[in-house]
Amino acid sequence: MTALLRKLRWWLQRRRKEEELREELQFHLTEEIGERQADGLSQEEATWAARRDLGNATLMREDARALWSWILLEQLAQDIRYGLRGMFRNRTFTALAALSLALGIGANTAIYSFMDAILLRSLPISDPGSLVVVKWRSRPPASSGSGHDFVMHSEDGHSYTDPSGISAAIFPYPAFERLQETSAPVLSSLFAHKLAHGVNVMINGQAELVQAEYVSGDFFRGLAVSPAAGRLIDADDDRVGAAPAAVLSSGYSERRFGGAANALGQAVVINNLPFTVIGVAPPEFFGVDPAAAPQVYVPMRVTSLLLEQIGEQAFVDQTYYWVEMMGRLQPGVDLARAEAALAAPFARWVASTAANDRERANLPALRLEAGAAGLDSLRRQYSKPLYVLLAMVGLILAIACANTANLLLARSAARAREIAVRLSLGAGRWRVVRQLLTESVLLATLSGALGIVIAVVGMRVLTQLLANGQEAFTLRADLNWHVLLVTLALSLLCGVLFGVAPALQATRPALMSKLRDRSVSQSSMRQRGARPRLAQVLVVAQIALSLLLLVAAGLFVRTLSNLQSVSLGFDRDNVLLFELNAPQAGYPEPQVADFYADLRRRLSEVPGVREVTLSHASLIRASRSHPITVRGRPTQGTRVLWTGPRFFATMQIPILRGREIAERDRQGTLPVAVVSDLFARTNFADGNPIGRRIEIAGSLSVGGAPLVFEIVGVAAEARYGGLKGTVPPVVYVPYAQIPLAQLRQMTYAMRTDSDPLRYAPAVRQIVHAADARVPVTNLKTQAADIDQTINQEIVFARLCSAFAILALTIACVGLYATMAYAAARRTNEIGLRLALGAGRRSVIWMMLRDVFVVAVVGLAIGASAAFAASRLIESFLFETKPNDPRAVALAAAILLLSALAAAYGPARRASRVDPLAALRHE
Amino acid sequence: MTSQKPPSRVELLRGTLDLLILRTLLPGPSHGHAIAKHIQRTSEDLLQVETGSLYPALYRLEAGGWIAASWELSDKGKRARYYRITPKGRKQLAAEQSKWNAFVRAMGLLLEPADEDAS
Q1: Interface contact A30, partner B, CB < 8 A
Q2: Burial (CB count <10 Å: 0-12, 13-18, 19+), residue A871
Q3: Model confidence over A532-585: pLDDT tens digits?
Q4: How far is CA A70 from CA A8, A282, A434, in A?
């Protein structure tokens, strides 16, 4: 410690100390000279003798300084200066090596940061580890004939079916009540919640759709969240008849009221019901689902009025599955014990809800899952794509490392002579190695710094790509320092391994042979084996890995182009879509249809708008089915679209027979329907259904009897419900002729003369003028609507193409460096060949042949790996085989050509050497 | 710290230079050159202190707190760096000296055994 202080003190006053030392030695010298003169020597002789006696003053100073200072530190500074100079001198080398490493580091950090945000991060609440999510699982129901096969008769939420069964996290409300009664021994709290994707919130006359969370009274207590202002919803708020209270998210209170404190006590109208803001949630709290960001929390029991269509029935229906549940384990209770304690009461309860033997034979069984990270909807959606992306960026990092290794290898080999000179001049071996180490670290540091920049930019781009214009995209990703450090360490390791190891070899005592190396380079023809072999292995690896990425890119691009060339049956261009939900905003039921119709008329008067129509959903997102019968015979897989007048004209779907739906098809007239060609051919033997009747039951029944529609037209096939899969038979019915209570949200479609988005302000203005309570949502073009359904494919195709180009570039750089190095080593050999009469062409060919061999080996390895690995991405492909030979062949061809192109430059330069100069070089 | 002097001179044992410097400074302060000369003369030229060893040794002793240095005028009126033994240095000297004496005694016993050893 004292030594450290001393050194520090010395360092602070080193200039004075150095001066003192110099003066002291000078005094010594003068004394010595004086003494020698006194002994009778001449002044000159005396000075000479004294100096000789004094010895190496510099060395002495060094010795003295070593006592005071960090010699290591000084040398380090030297090394860094030298390294930086070297890097600056070899700008191209530095840029290539640093950039390729930085891309590897940046891409990995960005993707991993997303993964961390989605798959690994815990909820920002205290002790997330004790949270559990309640789910159930059952065998797949054997569907048969009539009646129900499964206790879940209807659902609002997700259930996941796979070959081994169904699983879901939604329950009937009575099940929640039953579990709440019995959970106390194992759970300190059990709470229910339900995300509503769009509730109409009106504040100060401004309406908008926001995400809301319906929560049970224990929600905030169970999550141990404390309010940012006011108080949070508790059990007293969650009672029938309680004063309607709402809690806002911190961000929403900021946006709508300018701060948490201002929001307290304010009135908000949610789905046309008055609520009072009682509190604001803390800023970091985003609910329990990382995929969502509810802005309003309202008590579950008072929301029965908000629940569309179901209402109070939702709280008593034992077969309607909709609430989600989470709980917190009692201290000392583990997941298995809690599950066992809850499974039994649930099993008894659910058995009591079974209506027949088939239902009793396959009852759902309760399961608990760890809930530290909240709900897994985001994980389900993104985990597999992210693993694929992670694998890809991992490959890029591998390629970048191999590339850096190659570049360093070539360089340290080129520096073997420099090192030999340094060693022979008396530099310590460790000293030389340390200097090379410093340079590698410098390079890695530079790459790391660049990598951070790339990661930050990459994350932004990725967020945009993934969101792709979706409203309420809530994926939060922060730069992950762990992975940054890991990738940095990896690149460092690679730098050290390949930058220093060859140097270490070069610093072996056999100096003289290295110094003489220049004069014995004839032997390099035979020597060519040793080090280049490692370089070639690295190039092979790079080519093989690049091929993997190229093949993947090819497959994804083909998938995307297959999807984009799917025949739609309608014209997607120049159509503007937006959604309205008048009943939700409190529009009186009898007038909803009129409101929609009136708005359609007003919109069609906008100059430049050719046609306006509406349907219950856009064609590509629709998925409505009702039991439909033709003369009492049920139809298979028929889908329904509720449409407005001029739907087929707007979407430009040809009417093959009859007419399309018109304004005169209203309430009180004979219900009519247009059917798709497929429906006509499937259900009518002669293919001409005009004038025939179909019956639609389910929610369209009136007084228990199915609604009867007369077919008035047959439309050509058009895509319904997504681009993948087969087009189902479709029945189009006028929204104006169905029971009005069924009318909910509608999607308007406008065919415009020019860029549809130019009409967005006009749309907002007209709707606002018609009724300010009804907000316009999801305003976008039909093209964007379709693209959003294939967002993952678009992201994959774009990212993967970028990755593939990156890999290709890096691999070519590596190849170029290797070739340039090989060419430099073989200058004499080539000179000799040229002198002996070899043609320049044959020299180029000789060099390229090596590359060709290396590339083909790499391609062979890569292709076999691609065949094996591409199965992993099979589920991401559309109408493309995972081992599509065309994709592999194309990728291989691109790679081979790029490799030869990269190698051609150095090869040509090598062939241009002046044979005389090359030989004289000896 | 090792010296490569002609065979006529005795090589300083490692560590003994510190002891000699401290002993030289015991009577009073002195500068580097004088210390070297004093050692050389007192040892009848058997010990030659190399400048290359002397000054690093002085700095080491100074850093250890056994001697202190200050700039003063020499008897010829020139600025010189004078070293002075500190109380800590005196203690160190005493300890080193007894160790050295023990060492010399041990060496003497081993190299010139008493006569009875012959039997």
Answers
A1: yes
A2: exposed
A3: 567 788 888 888 999 988 998 888 899 899 998 889 999 999 999 999 988 888
A4: 9, 51, 15
Quickly list H helices, A565-635: 589-604
- Would you say A288 and A378 are in contact if contact means Cβ atoms under 8 Å apart? no
Find all residues with CB under 8 Å of A202, minimum gap 6, and list them. Answer: A208, A268, A269, A270, A272, A585, A773
Q: 3-class secondary structure for A303-372?
A: HHHCCCCCHHHHHCCCCEECEEEEEEECCCCCHHHHHHHHHHHHHHHHHHHCCCHHHHHCCCEEEEEECC
- Selected residues 77-116 of chain B with any CB under 8 Å from a CB in chain A: 78-81
Give B100-119 pLDDT, tens digit per residue.
889 888 888 888 876 554 44
For chain A, residues with pLDDT lower than 50 are 145, 511-512, 514, 516-531, 922
| CATH code for residues B16-111 | 1.10.10.10
Specify whether the CB–CB gap between A310 and A320 falls below 8 A. Answer: yes
DSSP class per residue in A230-269: E----TTTSSTT---EEEE-HHHHHHHHSSHHHHTT-EEE
Residue type, A242: A
Strand runs (DSSP E) across A115-186, as ranges? 131-138, 154-155, 159-162, 165-168, 170-171
Which residues in chain A are closer than 8 Å to B72, comparing Cβ atoms? none
**Measured distance CA(A822)–CA(A825) in Å, rounded:** 5
Nearest in space to A328 (alpha carbons), one of A370, A290, A265, A282: A370
Cα distances (angstroms) measured from residue A609 to each of A619, A754, A778, A781: 20, 9, 19, 14
Q: Does B67 touch chain A (CB under 8 A)?
A: no
The closest of A118, A808, A111 to A394, measured between CA atoms, is A111
CB contacts of A35 in chain B (<8 Å) are 37
The whole-number average pLDDT for the span B26-44 is 86
Rounded Cα distance between A248 and A264, Å, is: 9
The DSSP letter of residue A702 is B
- What is the ipTM score, two decimals? 0.79
Cross-strand bridge partners of residue B43: none
Query: How many distinct helices (H) and strands (E) make up chain B?
Result: 4, 3
Mean pLDDT score, B18-28 = 88
Q: Is the pLDDT at B7 greater than 60, yes or no? A: no
Which residues neighbour A256 within 8 Å (Cβ) at sequence distance 6 or greater? A203, A248, A263
Task: Report the C-alpha gap between A776 and A120 in whole angstroms.
Answer: 36
- Six-digit token pair at A345? 């009461």
Structure pTM?
0.70
Q: What is the pLDDT of residue A596?
A: 93
- Between these two residues, A84 and B94, which has the higher pLDDT value? B94
* A328 in Cβ contact with A284 (< 8 Å): no
Contact between chains at B78 and A20 (C-beta distance less than 8 A): no
Q: Is A776 left (phi over 0), alpha (psi -120 to 50) or beta?
A: beta
- DSSP, res B45: T
Amino acid at A682: T
The interface residues of chain A toward chain B in range 52-91, judged by CB-CB distance below 8 A, are 53-56, 59-60, 63-64, 67-68
Write down the pLDDT at residue A4. 64
Residue A552 CA to residue A568 CA, distance in Å, equals: 27
The alpha carbon of residue A64 is apart from the nearest alpha carbon of chain B, in Å, by 5
Put simply, the answer to whether B37 touches A35 (Cβ < 8 Å) is: yes
Q: Report chain A residues whose CB lies below 8 A from the CB of B50.
A: 55
Query: How many other C-beta atoms can be found within 10 angstroms of the C-beta atom of residue A739?
Result: 13
Helix (H) or strand (E) holding A777: strand A777-781
**Segments making up each domain of chain B, as ranges:** 16-111
Asked if B63 contacts B55 with a C-beta cutoff of 8 angstroms, the reply is no
